[in-house]
Amino acid sequence: MLTTLWLLLSFAVSVLRSHFSISCPNRHCQLALLSNNDIFLHCNASGAQWQFFFLSVKTTWTNNPFSNSNVETMPDGSLLIRNPLPLQTGFYNCQDKDGKKVVQYEIDFQDIETIHITHKGLGQEPLQNETLSLGGKELIFTHWEPWQDCNRCGEPGERKRLGYCYIEEPLETPMPCWLYLGDVNLWSSRTWPEMQVEACHVQCTSSNVDYVTFDNFKLNEKLGSAWLTCPLGSIYK
Ligand SMILES: *[C@@H]1O[C@H](CO)[C@@H](O)[C@H](O)[C@H]1NC(C)=O
Ligand SMILES: *[C@@H]1O[C@H](CO)[C@@H](O)[C@H](O)[C@H]1NC(C)=O
């Protein structure tokens, strides 16, 4: 009998990068993401310089966000944010080596610890639209992403979609909640991000083949349990 089991990994950074890297062809993008999921922000500039402005602290622009930084500029200019926190909601500016602005991201890292999960088949209700009155009649609602792929093929499976809190003023473009609210204290469960799950059944095709990447772990029988972390793991896929 095997006393140890080795789970070996095939660590495909290029695959991970294409999954979790975000680019902004318009040079100015506003988006909502989940906290605690690593992401790459793309910036096509050699010698890229990133600057940050965090809405929660409302200081000034800075290029040195925290002493124990989870933010790293990659050789190709993109920015890797490991385990982003809700208080890192704000503006991310990339400049080229001459100081010219290449791209600006405005990102709301919505708190994954409050995510509201519902299963459609069990009749669980997602959060309902509400009206705020912060000055006008603002609608607060969940902006849903498309359903992700079914997790199985040829047998019943499940699929999920993520939804982010957005606020819309009449006749205006909706904005991610915390980019709209800034440092306004609105402690309402309506500001939670959401995940919805439903049953699915799809035929198998060759494109259904997917890879799971593990780090290198040794499971010891004496321990009885093990904690596996998935490197660069993400709820996005
Ligand atoms: C990056 O910038 C270069 C030069 O400006 C351009 O030729 C290239 O197409 C850009 N690449 C991408 C992926 O946008
Ligand atoms: C909630 O508001 C959004 C944005 O205006 C809209 O697309 C959606 O249909 C609304 N949902 C309900 C249940 O009214």
From TrEMBL:
Its main location: membrane. The keyword Glycoprotein applies. It is a single-pass type I membrane protein. Transmembrane segments: none annotated. Residues 25-110 form the Ig-like domain. Keywords: Glycoprotein, Membrane, Signal, Transmembrane, Transmembrane helix. Residues 1-17 form the signal peptide. It is found in: Membrane. One of its GO terms (cellular component) is membrane. Belongs to the FAM187 family. This is Protein FAM187B-like. It comes from Neophocaena asiaeorientalis asiaeorientalis. The lineage of its organism: Eukaryota, Metazoa, Chordata, Craniata, Vertebrata. The gene is LOC112392291.
